[in-house]
Design goal:
Number of helices of chain A: 11
Radius of gyration of chain B: 22 Å
Number of helices of chain B: 12
Helix content of chain A: 40-55%
Distance between the termini of chain B: 39 Å
Oligomer: heterodimer
CATH class of the largest domain in chain A: Mainly Alpha
CATH topology of the largest domain in chain A: Butyryl-CoA Dehydrogenase, subunit A, domain 3
Largest sheet of chain B: 4 strands, mixed
Helix content of chain B: 40-55%
CATH topology of the largest domain in chain B: Butyryl-CoA Dehydrogenase, subunit A, domain 3
Number of domains of chain A: 3
CATH architecture of the largest domain in chain B: Up-down Bundle
CATH superfamily of the largest domain in chain A: Butyryl-CoA Dehydrogenase, subunit A, domain 3
Mean pLDDT of chain A: 96
CATH architecture of the largest domain in chain A: Up-down Bundle
Structural class of chain A: alpha+beta
Shape of chain B: globular
Low-confidence stretches of chain A: 361-367
Largest interface: A-B, 53 and 57 residues
Number of strands of chain A: 9
Low-confidence stretches of chain B: none
Number of strands of chain B: 10
């Protein structure tokens, strides 16, 4: 058993870290977050050149064919850089849904352009009731047309096509389709914009059935948790650096146990989240019977931990932590958005409860 | 990353499994509730049996009758032992902490003299580290050893000594140079507990039992050949022992905690709360789920740490994460048990209405010690802050 990264996994993680540090440093991230969509075509083409837009998809559709653990590592590094724009929406979410539900022909039509970096996309799931339970979806297609609205749709304004989860199937709506209206929601996370998407007799192409969505959403959920881990690591690094240099009472504030122990807890929370995320990535890749619970464990723990790590990071920075210029609050904002996306900790605890209490225990695989 | 067991690991586990299936005592449940003074010969016999199968000290090098087991194999060993609910071994400190320290620092003569009897449980070992005025600040210890010809004369007091009452030998940390800086003047002595001047008293703890002892040393003569490692290098020797403590202890806990939570879920199904089983109460469900998840994360953390340590072979400051995680998790777990059991949670062993013969009330009290023993949570956080994150020392 080897619960560490292989050489090629270390290489991928390392090169992703260097890539994001070079192409999306804090100043660039801040520039993009101030734009309407946070999307930058030049950055997107560089992501494509790295193979990131096709990372986990089959080579037949122009993908790179790497595994879910590799996806977790890439998302961790994207999270560390607070990568703005539609990478999660397009590649992780829309890509995984297409991969899971679409026919080969639809994959050629929609997944391949994503892999090649030619298309941006997203998936519209939530409605006004904001419920992550699939049974609460109300929108239904009738005669190939959709009428209704979806909320909290990430990066919809830059999508070339939007994948829509309806009661009676999974559909693709072209961004130029008649009756489609996209309007921004003004939300906390400035780096991943949210939208209301309205359909009014809008033509939609059916690409698959909703029963196949679960595994795609598991991949997206675990990837969000991985992104949270990267954000936590960055928050920890910034905070420890600050605690070493900021002096009060004639000493670095990191000398004081009230500060030092909070840093230790940030480390414990970050590392524990990372362990849970890597395990979830592995379980998904192996199609392990405990994959669903492993994903819930990772998302549950990382959702709470990211908020707590952010709380501690801001507090340790003192007044500086409350300023706009310090990056910690930007990670904190992202953490809130990602905490609620695909179910917060409370939601996933109930998922876990239904698996370990009601089903009589689908516990994680023991050696 | 590959979480499947390697063929060597599978072979190790399967060999152990079949050995345990044939050899694990069937009557441990009749003994486990008895006072340890009564069951101790039983535990000695069990350790001897393990040693005959070469399973008593799997982490030790092959030349000392171990199996040179990797960290992952050690984890498998403790998992399998927990899985079959095997009794503990009588000489657990000798096998887990002191033996490895003697192997690392001892002279050839010391290894020949002590190691075989640690393995056979003929000589039980205890640790003389903490003192009434030296707990977290271990380096401030005051037990004094003065060289007199070919003997040290030892005077002082130790506290929180596990197995003191049955100990034949003690790994004792003493101050040999009172003029040196506090970490520099310490030496480790191997002390015969039957030496004149050694007195052992029980220390009654908040659970009512006496797992630990106080040791008193009055003009105790210890031959110079019983110095372990170098004179005045005792801090490094003692730290090596503590690293073994933090490194290996957590491995067996996953299955033990899982057994707790499984039983707790079973109880929650049968205890009524607001007109329905507690297992259907949304708040109880949230708490049970949180706990179940953390038990798994504890194991993921351990597996990652083992994989990382396999490269270096020696446990390091990462052990502090495990220590904080399992000890605080165990306290949360026991609190949830109390919430589920309600008024029954307080009933002690002996009360006919106590659930699981008072196991939960005992565990609730006993787990308060978890965040104190083997390095307090505060000390563990200092270790993470300073040695992992590179923050300045706070003390």
């Amino acid at each position: 058993m080897q619960f560490g990264l292989s050489e090629s996994q270390e290489f991928l993680k390392d090169s992703a870290r260097k890539f994001f540090a070079g192409e999306c440093p804090s100043a660039e991230m801040r520039r993009l977050m101030e734009t309407d969509t946070s999307y930058d075509a030049a950055l997107w083409s560089k992501l494509t050149d790295q193979g990131y837009t096709g990372i986990i998809f089959p080579e037949a559709y122009g993908g790179v064919g790497l595994g879910k653990v590799e996806l977790m590592l890439l998302m961790e590094e994207a999270g560390r850089a607070l990568l703005p724009g539609p990478f999660f929406s397009t590649v992780v979410l829309a890509g995984s849904v297409l991969d899971a539900v679409a026919s080969p022909a639809h994959k050629q039509k929609y997944l391949a352009p994503i892999c090649r970096g030619e298309a941006r996309s997203t998936v519209a799931i939530l409605e006004a009731n904001a419920s992550w339970n699939a049974r609460d979806v109300q929108l239904a297609a009738s005669n190939g047309k959709l009428t209704g609205e979806k909320y909290f749709v990430s990066d919809a304004a830059v999508a070339d096509f939007i994948i829509v989860v309806a009661r009676n199937g999974v559909f693709v709506v072209n961004a130029k389709a008649p009756g489609l209206k996209i309007s921004p929601m003004i939300a906390m996370d400035l780096t991943r914009k949210l939208y209301v998407v309205e359909f009014n007799n809008t033509p939609a192409e059916e690409i698959g059935v909703t029963t196949n969505l679960a595994r795609a959403f598991d991949v997206a959920t675990a990837a969000l948790a991985a992104e949270l881990v990267g954000g936590m690591q960055r928050t920890l690094d910034i905070t420890v650096e600050y605690a070493k240099t900021r002096k009060q009472f004639g000493k670095p504030i990191g000398t004081f146990q009230a500060v030092q122990h909070q840093c230790a807890d940030m480390y414990l929370e970050t590392e524990s989240s990372r362990s849970a995320v890597y395990y979830a990535g592995w379980a998904l890749e192996e199609n392990s019977p405990d994959a669903a619970i492993a994903v819930s464990i990772a998302k549950m723990y990382a959702s709470d931990a990211a908020r707590t790590v952010g709380n501690r990071g801001i507090q340790i920075h003192g007044g500086m932590g409350f300023t706009w210029e310090n990056d910690v609050h930007l990670y904190y904002r992202r953490a809130k958005g990602s905490e609620t996306a695909f179910g917060d900790a409370t939601f996933h605890r109930e998922c876990i409860a239904s698996m370990v209490i009601d089903a009589g225990g689908v516990a994680a695989k023991s050696a | 990353m590959d979480l499947n067991l390697t063929s060597e690991e599978l072979q190790f586990r399967d060999e152990l499994r079949s050995w345990l299936a044939a050899n694990v005592p069937k009557d441990w449940n009749e003994w486990r509730e008895k006072p340890i003074e009564e069951s101790f010969p039983y535990l000695r016999a069990w350790q001897r049996k393990l040693q005959e199968g070469r399973w008593a000290a799997v982490s030790w090098p092959k030349e000392y009758a171990g199996r040179s087991a990797t960290l992952m194999q050690q984890a498998l060993f403790w998992e399998e032992m927990a899985r079959v609910e095997a009794p503990p071994m009588a000489n657990s400190l000798g096998l887990g902490l002191i033996g490895p320290t003697i192997i690392a620092y001892g002279t050839e003569a010391q290894k020949q003299r002590y190691i075989p009897k640690i393995l056979s449980a003929e000589e039980i070992w205890c640790q003389g580290f903490s003192e009434p005025n030296a707990g977290s600040d271990l380096a401030g210890l005051q037990t004094q050893a003065v060289l007199h010809d070919d003997h040290y004369i030892v005077n002082g007091q130790k506290v929180w000594t596990s197995y003191g009452w049955v100990g034949d030998w003690c790994e004792l940390v003493v101050r040999t140079d009172p003029t040196a800086a506090k970490h520099k003047g310490l030496t480790v002595l191997l002390v015969d507990m039957k030496s004149p001047g050694v007195e052992v008293r029980p220390l009654r703890q908040m659970t009512g039992e006496s797992e630990f002892n106080e040791l008193f040393f009055r003009d105790v003569r210890v031959p110079v050949e019983n110095v372990l490692g170098k004179v005045n290098d005792g801090w490094n020797v003692a730290m090596s022992t503590l690293m073994y403590e933090r490194g290996s202890y957590g491995a067996r806990l996953h299955l033990i905690f899982k057994r707790y939570i499984t039983r707790l879920i079973e109880l929650a199904r049968n205890i009524q709360r607001n007109g329905r089983p507690a297992s259907q109460d949304p708040i109880i469900r949230q708490k049970l789920a949180q706990c179940s998840a953390e038990i798994e994360i504890m194991r993921f953390n351990q597996m990652r740490a083992f994989s990382r340590l396999t490269a270096t072979g020696v446990p390091g400051p990462e052990g502090s994460i495990q220590k904080i995680f399992w000890s605080e998790l165990n306290q949360r777990l026991q609190q949830i048990a109390q919430e589920i059991l309600g008024p029954y949670g307080q009933l002690l062993a002996g009360d006919p209405r106590a659930i699981d013969n008072g196991m939960w009330s005992y565990a609730y009290l006993r787990t308060r010690g978890n965040t104190i023993e083997a390095g307090t949570s505060e000390v563990q956080r200092n270790i993470i802050g300073h040695f992992v994150l590179g923050l300045p020392r706070s003390y």
